[in-house]
Amino acid sequence: MAEQLVKLQGKNAVLFVRLLEDQAKMEAQLVPYQTSLSFDPSVDSDSTATKDGSVSSQSSVETELEVEFVNNNHFIADKIRHALFDGRKVEAWIVNKDRIKTNTDGSTKEVYAWYMRGSVNEDSNDNDADDLSTRDVTFTVDGTPKDGWLSLSDDQQADFDYIFRGLDIAKDDNDTAGGTKYDEEADGANQPKAPATE
């Protein structure tokens, strides 16, 4: 199916990270309590004057990735800090939750994302007396970032979304506990009926 034209919201672009060495141990983790995310690929260009006119040249793409978040005790926030001190490589994904593509069979929705690898080169921590502690982390990206489509696992989706739940005991995070999600097409009094088809 084709994508529908939508305005992308900054709040729906979120960063997932993982140490590259952990790729076989765990899925990527959402950085909690993000307040800002900046993705800045750029190239330097130069021009040389010739007798036939100017000829331009470009350098390789250089990308800087920066995330600001409220400081917290999530293990992935600690791993980001340790990656800086230990010189460990990091994988990072910018996931656009509001840019969605449905597969041709209609069964699975995928979201648009950028994938990159690199290093943490700065981790600034501000601790003002009248505010929350904040972190500002900058990554230097190796090579050229790649864009594509990915599916979120139930756990990853649950990091920033949750299901409607009833009052019963819930056996796990996906248990609706006797609840049924509101249906905009069917619920509410005096719903207009679909026109009859011949």
Strand count:
9
CATH topology value of the domain at 10-45 and 61-158 = Pnp Oxidase, Chain A
Rg value:
22 Å
Strand content bin: 35-45%
InterPro entries: Phage_69_Orf23_MTP (IPR022345), Phgtail_TP901_1 (IPR011855)
Organism: Companilactobacillus ginsenosidimutans
Protein name: Phage tail protein
Describe this structure in words.
InterPro entries: Phage_69_Orf23_MTP (IPR022345), Phgtail_TP901_1 (IPR011855). This is Phage tail protein. Residues 170-198 are annotated as: Disordered. The protein is mainly beta. It has a domain at 10-45 and 61-158: Pnp Oxidase, Chain A. It has helices at residues 75-86, 154-158; strands at 13-19, 29-30, 34-42, 45-50, 53-58, 62-70, 90-102, 109-126, 134-150. The mean pLDDT is 84. The longest helix has 12 residues, at 75-86.
Strand and helix map with partners:
Blueprint: E1 13-19, E2 29-30, E3 34-42, E4 45-50, E5 53-58, E6 62-70, H1 75-86, E7 90-102, E8 109-126, E9 134-150, H2 154-158
Antiparallel strand pairs: 1-2, 1-7, 3-6, 4-5, 6-9, 7-8, 8-9
Features of this protein?
single chain; 198 residues; mainly beta; Pnp Oxidase, Chain A; seven-stranded antiparallel sheet; two-stranded antiparallel ribbon; 2 helices
